[in-house]
């Protein structure tokens, strides 16, 4: 009998703490169990508003680079006013 590896979901979002400027752009990000890092660059922004017929989704996504060079994809859940990091 063959054993198949267990599948793990990709891209599971994790809650993060984000401090923003007056316009709502992230300036500091604190990942779980890590110290806060300054956002050095925002590379890309996009918005998703979808699935209104089931469960509404309204999110602002950003690809950012932190001051240590690490690139992250963040999203701000506009309905819940919470920030997440999306991993691939």
Q: Summarize the amount of helix as a percent range.
A: under 10%
Would you list the SSEs in sequence order as H and E? EEEEEE
Quote the average pLDDT.
Answer: 90
Poorly predicted runs of 5 or more residues: none
Shape verdict = globular
User: C-alpha Rg, in Å?
Assistant: 15 Å
Helix-strand makeup class: mainly beta
Number of helical regions: 0
How would you sum up the major sheet?
6 strands, antiparallel, barrel
Please characterize this protein's 3D structure:
With 88 residues, the protein is an all-beta fold. It has one domain (13-86). The chain is built from no helices and 6 strands.
Task: Reconstruct the topology from this structure.
Layout: E1 13-20, E2 26-30, E3 37-50, E4 57-66, E5 71-77, E6 82-86
Antiparallel strand pairs: 1-2, 1-6, 2-3, 3-4, 4-5, 5-6
Kindly summarize this structure in a few lines.
The chain has 88 residues and is an all-beta fold. It has one domain.
Descriptors:
single chain; mainly beta; globular; 88 residues; 56% strand
């Amino acid at each position: 009998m063959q054993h198949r590896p267990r599948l793990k979901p990709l891209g599971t979002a994790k809650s993060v703490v984000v401090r923003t400027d007056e316009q709502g752009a992230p300036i500091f990000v604190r990942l779980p169990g890590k110290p806060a890092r300054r956002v050095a660059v925002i590379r890309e922004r996009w918005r998703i508003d979808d699935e209104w017929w089931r469960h509404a989704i309204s999110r602002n996504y950003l690809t950012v680079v932190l001051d240590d060079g690490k690139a992250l994809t963040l999203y701000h859940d506009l309905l819940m006013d919470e920030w997440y990091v999306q991993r691939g």
